Amino acid sequence: GAVVSQHPSRVICKSGTSVKIECRSLDFQATTMFWYRQFPKKSLMLMATSNEGSKATYEQGVEKDKFLINHASLTLSTLTVTSAHPEDSSFYICSAIISGRGLGEQFFGPGTRLTVL
Amino acid sequence: QKEVEQNSGPLSVPEGAIASLNCTYSDRGSQSFFWYRQYSGKSPELIMSIYSNGDKEDGRFTAQLNKASQYVSLLIRDSQPSDSATYLCAAIPSGGSYIPTFGRGTSLIVHP
């Protein structure tokens, strides 16, 4: 149980294009999902907290107009990197909390590796 | 600022030994603590959660929590080369949100 999927697992795009990453909770409902970014050999960096049916809460320094988050249902959150540039190349990981469980355990998706040329 | 501190390592142990990973946290009001394992190039995987003082055992893993000392540890018995990974400690701070604070992780190397 508590499986989270991400799609795509890997994407290569040209500078200036937009990329959408999907995060799905497959066997549970997730009121809250999180989006992280991780550079090689660095620690996880929380980008934003995504709540179903409301606007995402972004961490300080994360541009909300560049990283668009939509949490339209209890099982799906999307992250769109708009006008991607090489410095946006990173490993993007989502996680989800089981609704109503109240324990705070996060279940992570497998991640999406973005390379911007 | 609420922090979770871990020694970055690497911690190197021989196969079959006990690996001891440690973590301290600054927010005395934290109630929930987690250990995640992250293999190189992969996303983190939850391996243990602990909410009350004392020990919690799950197979070869034991999590220990000491709230008075603000200290969490993870013991891995009979370490295997497949346990080689980065171990992330996380704590949910007081205040009602579910947003955890992660440590930077400890790299564990189990050599044959």
**What is the rounded Rg of chain A?**
13 Å
Order of helices and strands of chain A: EEEEEEEEEEE
First-residue to last-residue Cα separation of chain A: 37 Å
Task: Classify the beta-strand content of chain A into a percent band.
Answer: over 45%
Structural class of chain A: mainly beta
Structural class of chain B, by secondary structure, is mainly beta
Helicity level of chain B: under 10%
Helix tally of chain A equals: 0
Give the beta-strand count of chain A.
11
The shape of chain B is globular
What's the end-to-end separation of chain B, in Å? Answer: 40 Å
Oligomer: heterodimer
Query: Count the strands of chain B?
Result: 11
Can you characterise this structure?
Chain A has 117 residues and is mainly β. Helices cover 0% and strands 50% of the residues of chain A. Chain A has strands at 4-7, 10-13, 19-25, 32-38, 45-51, 57-58, 67-73, 76-81, 90-97, 107-108, 112-116. In chain A, strands 2, 4, 5, 6, 9, 10 and 11 form a 7-stranded mixed sheet that branches. A 4-stranded antiparallel sheet of chain A has the order 1-3-8-7, with no helix packed on it. The radius of gyration of chain A is 13 Å and the shape is globular. Chain B starts with a strand and ends with a strand. Chain B is globular, with a radius of gyration of 13 Å. The chains are: A mainly beta (117), B mainly beta (112). The interface between A and B is medium-sized, with 19 and 20 residues.
